Amino acid sequence: MRSSYIMFKTELKLSLRGLDMLIFALCMPVVVMILMGAVFGTKEAFPGAGYSFVQQSFGAVSVIAVAAGGVMGLPLVLSNYREKKILKRFQVTPVSPVRILVIQVLIYALYALVSLFLVYGVAVLFLDFVFLGRWPQFLAMYLLVMVAIFSMGILVGGLAPNEKMAGVYASLLYFPMLIFSGATLPYEVMPKILQGFADLLPLTQGIKLLKASSLGLPLADVIGPLLSISILGILCTGIAVRYFKWV
After folding, report:
1. CA 25/CA 137 separation, integer angstroms
2. How many angstroms separate the CA atoms of 243 and 228, rounded?
3. What are the residue ranges in the chain where pLDDT is below 50?
4. Where are the alpha helices (H) located in 127-162, listed in sequence order?
C-alpha cells in the first residue's frame, strides 16, 4: 500500500510538471464555463425549458477533463512507458505493471473530479447556477462516462505501435470530440447536419447522459446514450484486456 502511494505521488508530480493536464483538464473547462455564461447569460435554453443555458451546459463542460485525460493523457503515457521499456522493467519486480496502469487511471480520474467541482464552483459563484438534478445519480453517470472514455484511452495506448502513432490516434479521437460533441460548441446551436455527425461521437452520447442527469430529466429519455456508453465501455475494456501490449 505504501509503495502504491509513493508511486501515485511520484506519477502525479510528473504529470503536473508537464502542465498539459493543468491547462486542458483544469483551466480549460473553467474558461469554457465562463464563456458560456458571458455569451448566453442565464436566459432560458429555449422557451418553456425551465432551465437556463448555463444549467444545460454544465453537464457538457464538466466532461472536458474526462476527454483530456482519457483520450489524450492515458494513451500517450502508456505508449511512452511501453516504448521506453518502463513496463517491461516492472515485470521483473514485485510491482506489477498493472499497478502502473491503475495509478495512471486514478490520476486522470482525480483531475476529472477536481475539474468537475471547479466548474461547479465557478458556475455557482459567478453564473447563478442551480443544480437541478440529484448528485448521486449525476456522479454515477459521470463515473460511467469516465470509465467508457478511459477505456478508449487504454485501448489506444495499449495497441498503438509506438508513442508517435498513439499521439496521432489520440488526436484523431480527441479534437473532433472536443469541438463537435457539445463540450465546447453547444450541441443545440449546431446545424442539423452537424448534429448528425456529432451523434456518431462517443463523447456526445456521454454528454447527453450528463445533461439529463444534471437537469433532473428522466433517464428514460436518454436510454439510447446510456446503452451506447455502457456498450462502449464493455467493448473497449474487453479488447484492451485481451490485446494490451506490455512490451
Report:
1. 23
2. 22
3. none
4. 135-159
* Residue 142 falls in which region: left (phi positive, over 0), alpha (psi -120 to 50) or beta: alpha
Could you read off the pLDDT of 28-64 as tens digits, one per residue?
999 999 998 888 877 787 777 788 888 999 999 999 9
Contact 152, 75 (CB under 8 A): no
Q: Report d(CA 15, CA 28) in Å as an integer.
A: 17
Helix axes 135-159, 202-215, angle to 10 degrees: 170
3-state SS, 18-52, equals HCHHHHHHHHHHHHHHHHHHHHHCCCECCCCCCCE
Q: Report the amino acid identity of residue 214.
A: S
Per-position DSSP letters for 147-190, written without gaps between them:
HHHHHHHHHHHHH-SSHHHHHHHHHHHHHHHHHHSSSSS-GGGS
User: Cα(90)–Cα(88) distance, rounded to whole angstroms?
Assistant: 5
For the chain, the distance separating the N- and C-terminal CA atoms, rounded to the nearest angstrom, is 25
Beta carbons within 8 Å of 116's beta carbon, 6+ residues apart: 62, 65, 142
Local structure of 208: helix, strand or coil? helix
pLDDT at 173: 93
Q: Is residue 222 a contact partner of residue 133, using CB atoms and an 8 Å limit?
A: no
> 446545424: which residue's cell?
191
- Identity (one letter) of the amino acid at 49? A
Treating both helix axes as pointing N-terminal to C-terminal, what angle do 202-215 and 163-180 enclose, rounded to 10 degrees?
A: 50
What amino acid occupies position 100?
Answer: I
